[in-house]
């Protein structure tokens, strides 16, 4: 197996076989298995379900260089939040018009860099940033980000970003107009991991009203940005959400001259990673009568490493073990800890697992979103290495 480059496979990636061939017996570090073809398949699914909408991948979700390169090669655009993210994407040869600087509050040096690199599109949601743009990047294209939250989302974002859609967004456009700045569109983010089927419809309707107001001011708005929020590991749910987006777009933005973009993050990458961890220690917890209550397992990755998604992204992880699938095998109440000395470092509890032993491996699918860029080597436990795979 190539540990530096990309490994190629025929038809389907057999994770069990990869794990067996990786010979992890003598290795104390966790391992990421990244299937780059999953990213390509997600792109095909996007094109099929949302043909009118150009995806601008949110780099923050997973900035792994092979993931970003794969998406750049597919022609996807990018949502960057900082100078470094802009630089990373530009270094892959992505042209500035395929980038949106989608952080409504940017340090001046980052804005200067965007200006120098001619990244024109940027979101804005408050008057201070408009004055900042007036001073530092007056010929940029302002995309007014308004708030329109899903009723249910894994990570709501509305407390931090997005102006009020009914009054403040119009006031910001008026201010921009009085400063001779150019507003070219509007954006919103319904919240990451959106499960509200009507969320995009509501937001797109509000965007339509703002387009009308912009026209009254003499602006020629031509960009609608519908943000992120699409699921990463549930394609059926994605297809349903895409259906509601398509009908709202058809209803409110039938004019094909208006470019519609989105900023999907987890949609592209969640399913592309499987994390393989090793049980390096275990304990049995017994009740006062000596009866086994819970088996506790300690893994070589935890919430300060890849499983930070449990804390920050409110994810519930799924565990797979690599024992023969025998339904007669008894299962026990189990709890899984990470490797650090902190009791917050808990991965999963109240699980039913077969009786596992030290050295056994556990697999966690769908670990590609909001894991890699945030993970730290707290307490001296190294981050997992990544093996890359791609279909021939
Ligand atoms: C501005 C912006 N765009 C896009 C995303 C990506 O969202 P998701 O991963 O839900 O698609 C985020 C996530 O926080 C974001 O803040």
Automatic annotation (TrEMBL):
GO cellular component: cytoplasm
GO terms for MF: ornithine decarboxylase activity
Matching Gene3D superfamilies: Alanine racemase (3.20.20.10), Lyase, Ornithine Decarboxylase, Chain A, domain 1 (2.40.37.10)
Reaction equation(s) it catalyzes: L-ornithine + H(+) = putrescine + CO2
Catalytic residues identified in the record: 341 (proton donor)
EC number in record: 4.1.1.17
Superkingdom assignment: Eukaryota
Family listed: Belongs to the Orn/Lys/Arg decarboxylase class-II family.
Function, as annotated: Catalyzes the first and rate-limiting step of polyamine biosynthesis that converts ornithine into putrescine, which is the precursor for the polyamines, spermidine and spermine. Polyamines are essential for cell proliferation and are implicated in cellular processes, ranging from DNA replication to apoptosis.
Protein name: ornithine decarboxylase
Natural source organism: Drosophila mojavensis
Recorded name of the encoding gene: Dmoj\GI20395
């Amino acid at each position: 197996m190539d540990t530096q480059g990309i490994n190629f496979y025929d038809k389907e990636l057999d994770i069990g076989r990869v794990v067996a061939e990786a010979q992890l017996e003598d290795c104390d570090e966790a391992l990421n298995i990244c299937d780059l073809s999953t990213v390509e398949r997600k792109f095909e699914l996007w094109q099929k379900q949302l043909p009118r909408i150009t995806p601008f991948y949110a780099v923050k979700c997973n900035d792994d260089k092979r993931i970003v390169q794969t998406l750049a090669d597919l022609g996807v655009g990018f949502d960057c939040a900082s100078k470094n993210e802009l630089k990373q994407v530009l270094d892959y040869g992505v042209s500035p018009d395929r980038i949106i600087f989608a952080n409504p509050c940017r340090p001046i040096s980052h804005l200067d860099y965007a200006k120098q690199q001619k990244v024109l599109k940027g979101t804005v949601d408050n008057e201070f940033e408009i004055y900042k743009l007036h001073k530092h990047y007056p010929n940029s294209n302002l995309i007014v980000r308004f708030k329109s939250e899903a009723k249910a989302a894994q990570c709501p974002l509305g407390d931090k970003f997005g102006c009020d859609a009914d009054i403040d967004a119009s006031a910001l456009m008026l201010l921009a107009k009085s400063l001779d700045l150019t507003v070219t569109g509007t954006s919103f983010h319904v919240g990451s991991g959106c499960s509200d089927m009507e969320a995009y419809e509501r937001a797109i309707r509000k965007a339509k009203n703002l387009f009308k107001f912009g026209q009254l001011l003499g602006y020629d708005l031509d960009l609608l940005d519908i943000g992120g929020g699409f699921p990463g590991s549930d394609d059926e749910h994605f297809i349903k959400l895409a259906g509601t987006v398509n009908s709202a777009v058809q209803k409110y933005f039938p004019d094909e001259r208006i470019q519609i973009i989105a900023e999907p993050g987890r949609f592209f990458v969640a399913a592309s990673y499987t994390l393989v961890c090793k049980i390096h220690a275990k304990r049995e917890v017994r009740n006062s009568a000596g009866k086994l209550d819970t088996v506790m397992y300690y893994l070589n990755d935890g919430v300060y490493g890849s499983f930070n998604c449990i804390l920050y992204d409110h994810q519930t992880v799924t565990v797979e073990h690599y024992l023969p699938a025998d339904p007669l095998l008894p299962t026990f109440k189990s709890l899984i800890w990470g490797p650090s000395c902190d009791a917050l470092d808990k991965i999963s509890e109240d699980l039913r697992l077969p009786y596992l032993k030290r050295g056994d491996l556990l697999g966690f699918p769908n670990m590609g979103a909001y894991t890699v860029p945030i993970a730290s080597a707290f307490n001296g436990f190294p981050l997992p290495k990544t093996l890359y795979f791609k279909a021939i």
